[in-house]
Amino acid sequence: MEKTKLWYCISNNGDGSASVLWFLTKERAEKYDNEQMESGDGFAEDSVGYAETFIGSDIHKEAIEMQKDMEDDERMDRDEQGRDEA
Question: Is the pTM of this model over 0.85?
């Protein structure tokens, strides 16, 4: 099985709990972490790190899904900006 490096950040769930979110790139993990900090929902420190896993593992699949979700959100933001400018 082929290994891959995945990036993560810790997400504040707002109810006293936290979750690990997995990303395909460091940039995506840092973007999510920074957005949390800017909104006041993040932690006082950077929570980005990485782990090695196998391609096709559960956390690899989660990272792929997160990538798709973030790309969809970015696409929607661009569409809204385009409508606002028109």
Answer: no
